[in-house]
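Internal tracking record. Fields below are filled automatically when a chain is submitted to the structure queue. Please do not edit lines marked as system-generated. If the sequence contains nonstandard residues, flag them in the REMARKS field before resubmitting.
Queue: standard
Priority: normal
Entity type: single polypeptide chain
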Amino acid sequence: MEAIPVLAGPTGSGKTLLALSLGEEVPVEVVSADATMVYRGLDIGTDKPTPEERARVPHHLVDVLEPWEAMSVARYLEMAEEAIAEVLARGRLPLVVGGTGYYIRALSEGLHQLPPPDPGVQAALWQELAERGLEALLHELSQASPEDAFRVGRNPRRLVRALEVLRRTGVPPARFPKRPPRFRYKKLVLWPERAWLFPKLEERARRQFARGLVAEVRALLARHPEMPTALQAIGYKEVVGYLRGEYGLEEALKRDIQAVKAYAKRQYTWFRREPGDVTYLPRGGAEAYPGFRDWLNLHFGL
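SYSTEM-GENERATED OUTPUT FOLLOWS
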């Protein structure tokens, strides 16, 4: 195959539904590019495809880690490229689907070859983060490398890793050489109007609470008291605050809605700068994304 298709876009834009619909018609296997769906037990808050849906359309990199495990972009890259190679070996079409832009960028543009993590330096940075706050450390990184600051966004784990490398070596991560990508990609980015998307995100958050998100988080905390990576996920972090008595249930929902809208805004900013072979697809009328099949037919003969 000349290129691998990628279906990206902001959260709630309809990526999963399109992928499942396609998988009902052609031999597609989804390779997830979602940093939260990798975790077992994080189902309601991620709108994860159901086991029945995944039985009809195979998914890779979903439910592969326990909530207490860390998922680095290097680990994701290794697992995703291996999954893509396996799907191709079976004569089927791998479709990368997700909204974690950093994962998609690593797949298509390569990953900076950084020195191994230093747990001692990272521990000191986590303590400093707790004392000084996110903005202070993000400012330090931005002064040294605006590119890295944009890449890490407001993700504390990525910020700590980037500053660890900077302080140890004097060189920001973006200046390290890259390992070339294993495959070539063509990307389709769903691009709904914000006026359509943001009310949908609010509706989805309310629906997740009604479906039992609080009970899901309570059960996760009972089984895994320490979930440092998974607890950063939108919805889960806000519910944890409620369960710890920091604020009420309505406030947790309000914070969830604010967080998911802010995340969508960051995704729009990230994907607007997406490099490589990229097509942006707006929503249509009765059919949500009428150009989806046209794009697949044009580039992949589907």
